[in-house]
Amino acid sequence: MTVNKKPKAIILLAGMGSRLGRPRPKSLTPLGNGETILSRQLRILKKFDLDIVGVVGFKKDLIMEAAPELLYCYNPNYDTTNTSKSLLYALSHFQYEDVLWLNGDVVFEPDVIKCVLASDSSAVAANTASVAEEEIKYTLNADGFIQQISKQVSPALGEALGINLIRQPFVKAFCNQLMQVDDNDYFERAMELLIEKEGNVFKPVDVTQYACIEVDFNEDLEVAKKLLKE
Questions:
Q1: Per-residue pLDDT tens for 52-109?
Q2: Angle at CA 169, nearest 5°, toward 163 and 170?
Q3: Of 20, 12, 15, which is closest to residue 220 (Cα–Cα)?
Q4: Which domains does the chain carry?
């Protein structure tokens, strides 16, 4: 398989972030070091010379003002759809390229992106030291590829961290599955359907040694701030 060293990057920024309980989009949450979650993501992604597209919805003008240099897709149904449909809005424009996509609430070190981009297959950034009940988890098949990926899998081998890579040969088929899933499904449901159809697609990339956390609650935000200080 030919590996494109510079995929497109998609950041999912449309959600309302209600669990964090802030009036602004979650991606604009300050990290206490002069950066927001989004500005840190952009700084890191730009180190890899990636073209970046943001998918916006909730209070989109605030995000677009904070990062006017980006290209944007708009999910007009952000309040009634989930990440599967937000991803579809952008991914459907890049069916002939490798694509890195990530949730707009992930705080991570640059080495996480480096490891994912180095994968020779489609990939999922994973933490193998944690399998919390409310997080997305995965199982593997006999070939070492992801077989199931959701909150309900058992026995879980690790957590998916919300940073993923899909190689070009699978992009069109993945878009088809994103179209098929329910509006309230996470994109991981479409990943499972793609796996059912295509077999070996995604490999986990173990980035446990690096700081990487999704900020869903205030407790997560405090952990992220502590990791950055360390």
A1: 999 999 999 999 999 999 999 999 999 999 999 999 999 999 989 999 999 999 999 9
A2: 50
A3: 20
A4: 8-229 (3.90.550.10)
